Structures are given as structure tokens and as C-alpha cells.
Amino acid sequence: MSMNLKKYLVASFLVLSLGTANHVTAATETQTAMKQATNAAIANLEAALKAVTENKLDAAQDFIDATRDSAGDILGACSIEAKKQHGSTALKNARRQIKNGDTAGATISLKEAIEIFKSLLMSVNTEHQSVFKWFK
Predict the structure, then answer these.
(1) Eight-state DSSP code of residue 135
(2) 3-class SS string, 68-102
(3) Is-contact 59 74, C-beta < 8 A?
(4) Could you report the per-residue pLDDT of 13-27, keeping only the tens digit for each?
(5) Which of 52, 56, 90, 134 is the most exposed place for a label (fewest CB within 10 A)?
(6) pTM beyond 0.70
(7) Sequence-ordered list of residues with C-beta below 8 angstroms from that of 93, at least 6 positions apart, any chain
(8) What's the pLDDT tens digit per position in 85-114?
């Protein structure tokens, strides 16, 4: 094998290796950011639910607004996008129900939103593991 061909193969291997490392790093950073945003959304939803059960509807609205901000930071694939949309609908329902003083309805909507955001965490963990299985 000629020296130039060896150099070319080594250089090609290094370029491919660096590209793979960058994708893994980017995927890890995205997963971490998504996990943090999802945890923030869950914490806000649980606080909103507690506020609704204590009939503190203004506080519940504030927590829902904070959840919407966190939810905007959540990125993901199509299945995650569908969950985000479903979670957004549950939040809209909770907002409307709180405005109308419907604590029972708001409780149901907030519990639904909490479950959706928790399922997003499961999706993040699953995707994180599937990304790394290719590099083992």
C-alpha cells in the first residue's frame, strides 16, 4: 500500500471519528436540555395541581404559564412532538377551567399534563440509550 493511500485512509478515519463524536456530544446536550426543561414543566404542573386543590387559582395560572415556557424548550422527534401538542392542549384546558373556577376539571387536566410530561422523560431516556447503542 502506498504511503499516500495510508495517509488518506488515516485522515478519512479521523474525520469520520470526529464527526461521530460531535453527533454524540450534540445528542447528549440536546437530551440534557430536554430533560431539564421537562423536569421544570413537571415541577410547575405539580405546583399548579396543588394550588388548584387549595383553591389558589391565581397561583395555579402562574404555574401553568411557567409550564408553557418550559414546554417551549422541549425539543424532540415526531412522537415527542405529538406528546408536546397533547400536553399543550391539556394546559390550555386547565387554564380555561381555572378561569371558569372549575377545580375538578382543572385537576383532571393538570394530572393529564403531568403524566404527558413524565412520559416525555421516558422518551428522553429511551432515545438517549438508543443513540449510544450504535457507538458501543
Answers:
(1) T
(2) HHHHHCCCCCHHHHHHHHHHHHHHHHHHHHHHCCC
(3) no
(4) 655 555 544 444 545
(5) 134
(6) no
(7) 105, 109
(8) 888 899 999 999 999 999 999 999 999 999
